[in-house]
Amino acid sequence: MTTIETHASGTQVHATSSDSALGAFLVGVAAWATTTDHKRIGRLFIGCALLIAIAAAALGAVVGVERITATGYSILNKDSIVQIFSLYRVGLSFGVMLPLLLGVAIAVVPLQVGAKTIAFARSAMFGFWMWLAGLGLAVGSTIANGGPGGGNAKMVDLFLLGMGLAVIGALAAAVSVVTTVLTSRAPGMTLLRVPMSSWSALTGGVALVLTLPVLLGTLVYLYVDHHYGRVAFGGNKGISDWMGWSLTQPQTYVYVAMGVGVLAEIAAVVSGKRQVLRPVLLTGIAVVSVAALGGATQVQHALTWTNTSSSDKVKELIPFLIFNALPLLGVLVVLGVSLLGIAQGKPRLVPAMAPALLGLGMILTGMVGHLVSLFGPAQLAGTVFEEGEFIYVGYGALLIGLAAISYWGPKLWGRVLPSSAVLGISGLAFLGTVLAALPMYIAGFANQPANVVDGFSYSGPQELWNIASATGHALVAVSVLLFILTALRAFTAGEVAGDDPWDAQSLEWSVSSPAPSSNFVSTPSVASAEPLLDIKPAGGQK
Amino acid sequence: MTYALPAGPRPAPRRQLMMSTGIAAVAGTMLIGGMLSLWLRFRAAAPTRLSSDGVYHIKDWLPADLKMPEVVTNVGILSFIVVCVMVQWAAYAARRGDSKHVVAALGLTLLFGIAILNAQAAIFVQFNVGVASGAYQSMFYAIVGTLTVLVVSGLVFTVASLFKSIGGRATNTDLLNAHALYWYFLAAAYTAVWFVVFVQK
User: Is B31 within 8 Å of A531 when comparing Cβ atoms?
Assistant: First the structure.
């Protein structure tokens, strides 16, 4: 036996080598599939969300191309158009906005609050796989003539089941994040000292916990009704009506609420100073999550203001402002305080600032659009204006996700993304977002109907708006693809990052890059909201 | 350069299980609350007709041959009251370090939990109305079925707590407080469903 092993032939050696490579690969896959390291779970969420973002943007481009002539169907099928629009909305909401920012939170929050791991790591891992499997079922069944308006009853059932699983998965992951912030903070880190992105993960996570179960209950009703009788909820055609609130504003604000703090976090680092007006900023971030109230009521609180008395107008105005304007106020506060901090400091270049700022700006534009569209006299209901809002919010969240990956990439992968690539790709994605959404705002005022691709005509450059929108979606798809390729290259063979490449302020930058599997050797003690500035020379002021 | 922060004192007990159970209870409340709100919305929107004597307005919401097994539903709510006492007994015994009482209380919780599950099954059997017969029936099975799943998850929690207690962790107050909290949530959810669906219909 020993002789055979010692004098093994070249073939045998090669086979052994390839076997071990295969074995190592399988072990690696198994390690990732069953990982309880929050950084890996977060990266799994982020990677899948970016891939889905490409598919969603490409689908948006196809729809845009189909709308150019508006006289018939050249790529898509008329019978499947409801499903196509549903697929786009499900993909961007549950495949991009929600998992991308949830993934960032899972990867970063434990490091920021000084925890060695995320609370209930297995629950977070279970959440990822359940979300992925559920979304896969939902998308696959829609492609197989299921989903809202689908003709195959079994596939429609499967869509509802898949959505339910995806919601349960997202909930499990959100509970892990919220529990981590509430129970695993380092000694001395009160809730008022929590870093801004962890605070937004907490408030956004709570908003998810409040709204996703309502969607789950609706899905249970829809499933039972569709599977058995189709007597209460309108069968396959009624699915969009009953779960549509989860795929539009203000519920989409809940999906992006976890990412609102990213800009504030990076802006403080850019300014090189301690966060100004911190309590105001915390309040602003929390106020964004008030959107949960609008989502949970499952009703659009619009201002009709036609043929109504003054008291009726006031009765409409109050819920309209609470459910739709408060989140907008929150984003304005975050933007304003972040920019004020930069203005008062000595700004320096942190590339992630660009996509974070542009992303929140896009979300703000979507929120303003939503307010306008709900104002009855504007007569924008049922037009593509509402699609424009959705695109602004969805791609805005995507830009914030890109910012977060660029900013925390060194801590997760140990390497830095090239600044020029981050700035260039962010600019391209921003251009794509504006091109995809702004023409929809304009076409909305020309009464181009939503959720259809043909049979409409209006005076004005109708073709131009739809060509621009299709180009915008395509640009977003290309920019995400470029980002993934750049990240793959940079995070495997790029410039090695230092432990604190941005001269930052929060706890995660006190450990080595990439962060070790258990994050901290010993639990750090915190005496202020910017613990690293407490120990840096001259308080980190440069 | 790595900036080393001073090591902090040993962190206080985290009570993670209690906190996450609280969050799960909030989520469950939103789940049942959302379902009940849709139930009320459908009931309010049900068409009305005049009674044969032309005096009363009757909502066409309940099936004509409906026989709600009210005795069973009342047994269910009484069982929940007993379960709430049992889970609090388990939490109290854990604080006192009395492992025998913890195991006894959890065993009784399991027993009455199974009784609740049995009552749920009896409701389905005695209800005797087809799920596909109308909006009321479809929604009834959906909401009571969801409640049944939540009760099953409570039983799983009880079994896990029982095994851990038998295995030597009977004084884990965080576990048993969380367990008690979850059953309180289930009792509240059942009471809400009992009042809206079983009593008011």
Answer: no
- In a domain, residue B17? The reply is no
Mutate to test the interface with A, among B138, B146, B150 (most CBs of A within 10 A): B138
Q: Are A104 and A42 in contact (CB under 8 A)?
A: yes
Cβ-Cβ contacts under 8 Å between A and B: the total is: 146
Tell me how close the Cα of A184 comes to any Cα of chain B, in angstroms: 7
- The CATH number assigned to the domain holding A93 equals 1.20.210.10
User: How high is the ipTM of this complex?
Assistant: 0.93
Angle, CA of A52, A55 and A60, to the nearest 5°: 125
Instruction: For chain A, 542 residues long, give each residue's pLDDT as a single digit of tens.
Output: 334 444 444 444 455 666 788 888 899 899 999 999 999 999 999 999 999 999 999 999 999 999 988 888 888 888 888 899 999 999 999 999 999 999 999 999 999 999 999 999 999 999 999 999 999 999 999 999 998 988 899 999 999 999 999 999 999 999 999 999 999 999 999 999 999 999 999 999 999 999 999 999 999 999 999 999 888 888 888 899 899 999 998 899 999 999 999 999 999 999 999 988 999 999 999 999 988 888 788 777 888 877 678 888 888 888 888 888 899 999 999 999 999 999 999 899 999 999 999 999 999 999 999 999 998 888 898 899 999 999 999 999 999 999 999 999 999 999 999 999 999 999 999 999 999 999 999 999 999 999 888 888 888 898 999 999 999 999 999 999 999 999 999 999 999 999 999 999 999 999 999 999 899 988 888 999 999 998 887 655 44
- Identify whether A7 is part of a domain: no
- Give the Cα separation of A50 and A65 in Å (integer): 23
Report if residue A454 sits inside a domain.
yes
Contact list in A for residue B11 (CB cut-off 8 A) is: 186-187, 523
> Is residue B37 situated within a structural domain?
no
Backbone angles phi, psi at B7, to 5 degrees: -70, 135
Give the end-to-end CA distance of chain B in Å, rounded to a whole number: 68
Domain CATH number, residue B116? 1.20.120.80
Cβ–Cβ gap B3/A186 under 8 Å: no
The model carries a pTM of 0.93
